[in-house]
Write a structure and sequence with these properties.
heterodimer, A: 255 residues, alpha/beta, Rossmann fold, four-stranded antiparallel β-sheet, B: 482 residues, globular
């Protein structure tokens, strides 16, 4: 599904990702954890194609294609979805109108006919149950005036609508109360199958109680320095990151 | 913003002007030059009554005393008013009995512009007055309208057939001496539309005038007068286009609206004059005076404008709220790109008690364009409980354009409530990226963001035109993302 080889990237002269290697196979859930500023959200942005970042080395293959060659919208159309940490507000554009445009853009890229109004509505009805999204959010302007939790729910709702192959959830759990967290986690668990994959970027072990990952990676200073299973997340929760940092520094030659 | 996105923006805001073609047709011109002979020539061409010729000559004398305005937020280009022709009309006119007698070239021209003049082919529910250079070509659905007593014709015809109405109201809202261009228009105006809605009548269809400048080296000076008698209602829309020409053309119109007691006039404009090329060469100078008066109590005037064209747009559709409980509204979207300039806004004069006004202005600038909102809210000493709400937003696309706001508030009554809100925002890279990440390409993303941004205003347009305006905005901004 996704192969990242020796990826280096940064903003202007500042190096942020310093040699990331990661293999995500269909049906897998990966969690990426790490202290603040380690490059977790940057990794998500680079994969989605945010143009502030320059990739200086390495390669990324997505379903066998060179991901870095594709524009951000092409990456989305190929099946890569990013649930944003801070979803933006777009006043005056209704959620419904936005979804319809996006769904049909993606369908047209895949040579599928546009959905009729009826088909679209029944798709919406079916998916909105997954995240218990109220009808009024469909009519309102995209994310405009939504609470933090509503915005995050809306991200997962979009994920459900687009059925991407690979979904990256960038700190979707931050700022959520326990009920919203449960709803979102349930949504993800129901969407998960043997053909799609998830990368969860998170600070907290809490999310992983609800969505159980196959792998947990620790990202520190632009590199994955440790990979384990769910138990690693529990260990981090208990001990913090210092021991991992020390381990990382011990591996490096003294500077 | 990075280079790639600037490139995309460049592409998105440099789409071509669709209506740039010109029509080859046998024309008749007044010799270039502005003087009393020219005025007499126009008046004679139109077989006008003497009172109007005298009115024009008086306006010309006023004009000679006028000074060019200097307060605008752009450099007024030098214009040689002696070099242009003040009358250009297709030959083969006058006295058309039916559409069959209209020059087929003209019909083709309007058809190409999407304005079929054949009633069968028209949008149902829209009557059109088509003005080509200096003359009205045809006015549709006149008979049907006249059954309920509505007069919808060219102003030239109204002058002959309804002189009492024209004489009473012409210049009553925009006096000849109002400003430089209004004085010029009063002296040399050629054609335009006239509407009278009798007492108690709700106009059953949208009325619309389509202005087309075609001739070279000429100006268009149209004059529109709309009178809504007591308890009546009318919704009126004007559209405009011009060929792509290298030289600038002057369009100096005057529009006057009169709303009597409890009457309502809704006036919408979709202005798409040729804006000039991407280097700022050519394009129409759109210097227009538009004003309405809510003469009777409880009357209402609403201006909605979508301004995408012209090299320079310079106008302030205004409302004089003379009666008590009157209401004035101004909804505007002004889009400028390349080197276009817009200095537009409104004036709301509160004279009557409990009068209220609402101003929603949305400016969008791309490329190297400059976009200014200028508005006056004036509350007179007798206007107890006057209320105004102004919201004025500017959106910048790219980093070479400018947005400016010049609000003026003058209140002489301490019971007035005046609110002013203004915002300036840049089209967010984050917004574009978000939509990109959902599979929407940058061009469509910009179209979507802009249409969302102006939604409040577009909703005020008659339905048929709201869709057109949406498309127009998308086309206009094609190539301007940045």
């Amino acid at each position: 599904m996704l192969t990242i080889k020796n990826l280096f990237a940064g903003i202007e002269d500042k190096a942020i990702l310093k040699g990331i290697n990661l293999q995500v196979n269909p049906g897998e859930i990966h969690a990426i954890m790490g202290p603040n500023g380690s490059g977790k959200s940057s990794l998500a942005s680079v994969l989605a194609g945010k143009e502030d970042y320059q990739v200086t080395d390495g390669e990324v293959l997505f379903e066998g294609k060179d991901l870095l060659e594709l524009s951000p919208d092409e990456r989305a159309k190929e099946g890569l979805f990013l649930a944003f940490q801070y979803p933006v507000e777009i006043p005056g554009v209704s959620n419904m109108q936005f979804l319809k445009t996006a769904v049909n853009e993606i369908r047209s890229y895949r040579n599928q006919p546009a959905l009729t109004a009826g088909e679209f509505l029944s798709l919406i009805k079916q998916k909105q149950k997954l995240v218990e999204l109220d009808d009024q959010f469909l009519r309102r302007s995209l994310n405009t005036g939504f609470s933090g939790g509503e915005k995050k729910k809306n991200e997962i709702f979009q994920l459900a609508m687009f059925e991407p192959k690979l979904s990256i959830l960038d700190e979707t759990d931050s700022g959520l109360d326990i009920d919203a967290l449960r709803i979102i986690a349930n949504g993800v668990n129901r969407l998960k199958n043997n053909n799609n994959s998830f990368v969860l970027i998170t600070h907290y072990q809490r999310l992983l109680d609800y969505i159980v990952p196959d792998f947990v990676h620790v990202l520190y200073d632009g590199k994955i320095i440790l990979t384990g299973t769910k138990d690693l997340a529990l260990e981090l929760e208990e001990k913090g990151y210092d021991w991992v940092k020390e381990m990382a520094h011990a591996k490096e030659p003294a500077q | 913003m990075s280079n790639t996105s600037n490139d995309i923006l460049e592409k998105v805001t440099t789409g071509d002007y669709e209506y740039g073609f010109s029509t080859e047709i046998d024309m008749e011109y007044a010799p270039p030059g502005l003087n009393e002979e020219t005025i007499a020539f126009i008046s004679a061409k139109k077989s006008e009554p003497d009172w109007l010729l005298q009115w024009r000559l008086k306006a010309y004398k006023t004009f000679l005393k006028q000074q060019l305005p200097r307060w605008q937020n752009f450099e007024l280009p030098e214009m040689d008013l002696q070099a242009i022709s003040y009358y250009a009309a297709p030959k083969k006119k006058p006295e058309l009995k039916s559409l069959d007698e209209v020059d087929p070239e003209l019909l083709k021209t309007f058809e190409k512009l999407g304005i079929p003049l054949n009633e069968q082919k028209q949008l149902t529910g829209v009557a059109v007055d088509a003005v080509f250079d200096s003359v009205s070509v045809v006015t549709t659905f006149r008979e049907e309208l006249s059954k309920v007593g509505i007069i919808f014709c060219s102003i030239s015809e109204a002058i002959k057939e309804h002189p009492e109405l024209v004489q009473k109201y012409l210049g009553s809202v925009v006096p000849q001496s109002d400003n430089y261009y209004a004085a010029l228009n009063s002296a040399v105006f050629s054609d335009g539309s006239f509407v009278y809605i009798p007492e108690g009548v709700r106009c059953p269809m949208e009325l619309s005038t389509y202005f087309r400048i075609n001739a070279k080296n000429s100006g268009q000076f149209e004059r529109t007068l709309i009178i809504a008698d007591k308890n009546s209602y009318v919704s009126y829309l004007e559209g405009c286009t011009a060929p792509s020409r290298d030289e600038n053309q002057l369009h100096a119109a005057v529009v006057e609206l009169v709303a009597l007691e409890n009457a309502e006039i809704k006036y919408s404009t979709v202005q798409n004059w040729y804006p000039g090329d991407k280097d700022g060469k050519g394009g129409v100078y759109n210097f227009v005076t538009k004003r309405g008066i809510c003469l009777g109590n409880h009357s209402k005037i609403s201006w909605t404008q979508v301004e995408t064209g012209s090299a320079i747009t310079w106008k302030y559709p205004s409302v004089i709220l003379k009666g008590d409980y009157t209401s004035g509204e101004f909804y505007s979207v002004a889009v400028t790109r390349h080197k276009q300039v817009a200095d537009t806004g409104t004036k709301m004069y509160h004279i009557g008690k409990n009068s209220k006004s609402r101003i929603i202005s949305k400016g969008i600038s791309a490329g190297e364009a400059q976009n200014a909102y200028r508005g006056l809210v004036q509350v007179g000493p007798n206007a107890r409980n006057a209320r105004n709400y102004t919201q004025c937003d500017s959106l910048l696309i790219g980093d070479r354009c400018g947005a400016h706001t010049f609000p003026y508030i003058e209140s002489k009554n301490n019971t007035a409530q005046i609110e002013h809100e203004a915002t300036t925002s840049k089209i967010g890279e984050d917004q574009i990226f978000y939509l990109n990440q959902r599979g929407i390409d940058t061009e469509k993303a910009v179209g979507m963001i802009v249409n969302g941004y102006v939604k409040e205003v577009l909703e005020k347009l008659p339905m048929e035109f709201a869709v057109e305006a949406q498309k127009l905005l998308a086309i206009t901004l094609e190539g301007s993302v940045g």
